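Sample 1 of the test manifest.
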Amino acid sequence: MTSEMFWEALAAIGRGASTTLMLIGITAIVGLFLSIIAAAAKRSGIRVLRAAVIAYVELIRNTPFLVQLFFVFFGLPALGLRLDPITAALLAMILNMTAYTTEVIGAGLDAVPDGQHDAARALGLRPYVAFLKIILPQALVVIYPALVSQIIIMMLESAVVSQIAVRELTHEAELWQARTFRAFETYFVIAMVYLVMSIALRRALVFLGKRYLAAGIT
Amino acid sequence: MIEFSNWDILRNLLFATRWTIALSLVAFIGGGVVGLIIMSMRISRRKVLRNFAAAYIGLFQGTPLLLQLFLIFFGFPMLGFRIEAWTVAALGLTFYASAFLGEIWRGGVEAVDKGQWDGSAALGLRWMLQMRLIILPQAFAYVRAPTVGFLVQLIKATAVTSIIGFEELVRVSGVINNATFEPFKVYGIVAMIFFCICFPLTWYARVLERRSEAFRSH
């Protein structure tokens, strides 16, 4: 490999990796936000909301992400909703992620002792203030490791969005191997980049969790 | 354009489903056998084996399944072997499953009280017999639910093998799409087929989970 090609390869990896990280970053933030709402809706005591959240979670959890992606990208235009690849990928990733994290957050909320609800009410806090300031932070501490794992899993699953021509890491690899005919080497390097990214992302998220949520997070 | 009735679409998709199911079964059984070996290495007294198993698990859990499939698909021909899409799919998913099952089962074995090892050693049992007669039967109670849960993950993961050209459900749906131009319907049906296979298993995993919680609280 000439040195010129080496820098080109490095640039392609950098571009691909940053797109992958951008996708997972947006997915994690929006997914977390939506799943807190969904988990709260499930516990709201309104039966229609509860049923809707359960149906959504079960539907997503029992179908492959690739099918969800194809449904969004190829299927939705039939309803007049045409999305560009990045938007379709993000929509599918957020839909998928939210279903899993809704379950995780639900489990975390269950883990907060009932006494905390009573104490919050005794202090005269409004229900939503009690939820945001007392219950949710405690739930997040309990489930933080599970959330981190879910984010890593989603990042690895996002490799298949290359199939709708989103130029993330795997798609850059596909372009590169089509150009150089060095398929095995290319995919090996990219697999290692994913490995490093998943280790680094886990470390970074645990660090942030320790810093801002609770010192005991591992 | 050839006319396809809804029945034609459904029939062809159901016909492809048998490959999805066959691949899931092969990978589950193969992954179970390899997973048992990986799990034994992971809890072995020899550090070399422990480290190898940890690296193996880290590698397969830290890289995307799609990249693992690509590496097998392009790696074997480099070594001079011809390899079919079916073999790539079966091998790839076996490795993938073994890493996850090995880790799930390790958790179960480690949850068995340490005294059980001492007790069975005091009876004069060797490691293999300790494992087979004393430890695994007890660990089984802990790992049944997560094992069934992982089977659902594995069935969904078969979708990714469509990308390397294995003719399972998603691959065939792509072909049908190209002929019918009805992606909304086709991918909708595909999602429903996956749901019908996975949801009963998810349900069963939940029943087992509840049972093992009752078992633990005794």
